[in-house]
Design goal:
With about 270 residues, the protein is an alpha/beta fold. A hairpin with a 2-residue loop joins strand 9 and strand 10. The strands form 3 sheets. Strands 6-7-8-3-9-10 form a 6-stranded mixed β-sheet, with helices on both faces. It has a single domain, classed as Rossmann fold, CATH 3.40.50.300. Helix 6 runs parallel beside helix 7 and helix 10 runs antiparallel to helix 11.
Length: about 270
C-alpha cells in the first residue's frame, strides 16, 4: 500500500446503485470506513447489505456509483482489490470432513504460500484452536467453526475483512467468542466491515454504525452520535439515554416501508 493509500479511507462508497430487474436494492449508498476500524452496516433482511458486500468484494458490478478498497477501484482494479481483502459469508466455508489444521493448510496452499504448515499452526494458536487442530471440523461447535472460518479468511494477511452477518444462528456463548475475535482483529489493525441485523451486535462492536434502509444510508455515526438523535427520557428524575434500538426504530419506523420491524424484533430476541 502506498503512502497516499494509507492516508485515505480503507473503504469509500459513493453513489452506489444496484437493481435486479424491477427491484431497486441500492439507491445511492455513500460512506467511508477508517483504516483499522470496525464499521457496522445495520439493516433488516432485504435491506441490501449482502448486495453491497458483494459489490465491494468485486463479486457484483454496480449499476451506478463507485467504490474503492485500499484506494483501488472495485470496477477498474478488481485484482488489486481481491489481493487486499477477504470475505466471510453468512455460511462458513469450512470443510467438515477435514480437520481444522487441514482446512487451514488447504487454503494456504491455494494461496501459494511458502510454508502452509507453519501458517496453519500460527493461526490455530491465534484463534485458540490448537487443541482441536486434529479433530474433524464437523465436530466443532458453532463458535469454533466460525473462528476457523475467520482464520481461513485471514490467510495471506488481508488488510480489509468483510463479515456478512457473522453470528447468524450462533448461540450467545458462540457469539461472544466471535465478538472477541473481531475486536482482536481490529486491535491489530485489520479494517472490519460487518453486516448485521442484530442491534446489540452493532452496539457492542462498531466504531461507526450506518443504518441501511430502503436502499440508502439514512444515518451514519458513532453510537454516541446516533443516541443524540433522540432526546433522553426522564423517569422519576432519572435520566435515561436512548439505546441504539430506540434510534433504529425511530429512524426506520417513520419511513413508509415497515420491513425494518422484523430486524428490530430479531434484535430483541437475541439480546
Amino acid at each position: 500500500m502506498t503512502t497516499d493509500q494509507a492516508l485515505q479511507p480503507a473503504i469509500r462508497v459513493q453513489g452506489i446503485e444496484k437493481s435486479f430487474k424491477d427491484l431497486h436494492v441500492l439507491r445511492g449508498v455513500d460512506f467511508d470506513v477508517t483504516p483499522g476500524s470496525i464499521f457496522a452496516l445495520l439493516g433488516s433482511n432485504g435491506a441490501g447489505k449482502t448486495t453491497l458486500v458483494k459489490i465491494l468484494s468485486t463479486l457484483l458490478k454496480p449499476d451506478a456509483g463507485t467504490a474503492t478498497v485500499n484506494g483501488f477501484d472495485t470496477g477498474t482494479e478488481p485484482a488489486h482489490v481481491r489481493e487486499s481483502i477477504s470475505l466471510t459469508g453468512q455460511f462458513t466455508a469450512v470443510d467438515d470432513v477435514l480437520t481444522g489444521r487441514e482446512n487451514l493448510v488447504l487454503v494456504a496452499r491455494l494461496r501459494h504460500l511458502a510454508s502452509p504448515d507453519a501458517v496453519a499452526g500460527a493461526l490455530l494458536d491465534r484463534f485458540d484452536l490448537a487443541e482441536a487442530a486434529h479433530r474433524r471440523a464437523g465436530t466443532y461447535s458453532g463458535g469454533m467453526r466460525r473462528r476457523l472460518d475467520i482464520a481461513m479468511s485471514l490467510i495471506g494477511n488481508p488488510s480489509v475483512l468483510f463479515l456478512d452477518e457473522p453470528t447468524t444462528g450462533l448461540d450467545p456463548q458462540a457469539r461472544n467468542e466471535v465478538w472477541r475475535t473481531i475486536r482482536h482483529l481490529a486491535g491489530q489493525g485489520t479494517t472490519v466491515l460487518l453486516t448485521t441485523q442484530y442491534l446489540d451486535e452493532a452496539e457492542q462492536l462498531a466504531d461507526r454504525i450506518a443504518i441501511l434502509h430502503q436502499g440508502v444510508i439514512i444515518q451514519n455515526g458513532t453510537l454516541a452520535e446516533l443516541k443524540q438523535l433522540l432526546p433522553a427520557a426522564t423517569v422519576e428524575y432519572v435520566e435515561k439515554q436512548p439505546s441504539l434500538e430506540d434510534v433504529f426504530l425511530s429512524l426506520v419506523g417513520s419511513a413508509p416501508d415497515s420491513r425494518a420491524s422484523g430486524a428490530s424484533a430479531q434484535g430483541k430476541d437475541h439480546r
